[in-house]
Write the structure tokens for this entry.
Amino acid sequence: MTRPLIVANWKMNMTLEEARGWCAFWPKDWGVKKRAANVVVCPSFVQLLFVQGRLLEIGFELGAQDCAAEAMGAHTGDVSALMLKDAGCHYVIVGHSERRTNHRENDPMVCQKSIQVFSSGMTPIVCIGETLDERTKGKTHEVLTRQLTRSLPHDLKEKNVVVAYEPVWAIGTGKVPAMDEIKNAHAHIFEVLTSLGWEGAKPILYGGSVTSDNAFEILGLPFVGGLLVGGASLIPEKFDGILKAAEVF
Ligand code: PGA
């Protein structure tokens, strides 16, 4: 297995002081010494420029949590992919379930956003995942197929994406699917992506209540190439525990 990609999604958390404190936890050359994983940290927009230099010193990359579906113009309150690129981002999360639910983002919008991310020279991390209701009705694979087919750019061959499988019911709940369920979902995602022309250069992540206790087991599953971590990424000691689980791979 290649080095896992571990993404910290800070969501709407952290003051500037807390973010600085988080960064101060890591030794300057962490990336050079340990480098068991490729690490991407996604703070809020307003913190990007403040933490960018420090993250670089540690050996972490910078990512954003969302971007506009349009390139520029009269879109009050939105932030364009190009602005994120300017701020030093390499990755942008798009289609997170909290955006899909709270901001009514649908698959075509997510697709537009991922195209913007590509056009600006970054990699989109496209989130997909079923709700509890869809899962109970046995529709998990159907939902994943639909989201993959509609949320990703069509020319996947050139535009390799990172896909993050995040069952909506597992996000922030402390509930994690059985390992077999994660394995099956990832195998399905791999199959659909391959049928869409994806060439597998980027990892498929799992997200939803990842902790240092379950990270090792999840990372060991076939087709799991990394993790998208919310709550446990806010406390550096906890996040470090997750990175330590990646050292074995
Ligand atoms: P969680 O969030 O780790 O707190 O469950 C994951 C995510 O929403 O990306």
Q: What stands out?
A: Residues 9, 166, 171-172, 207-210, 228-232 surround 2-phosphoglycolic acid (CB under 6 Å). Residues 118 and 124 are 7 Å apart (CA to CA). The beta strands are 5-9, 38-42, 61-64, 91-94, 123-128, 162-165, 204-207, 226-229. The first strand starts at residue 5 and ends at 9.
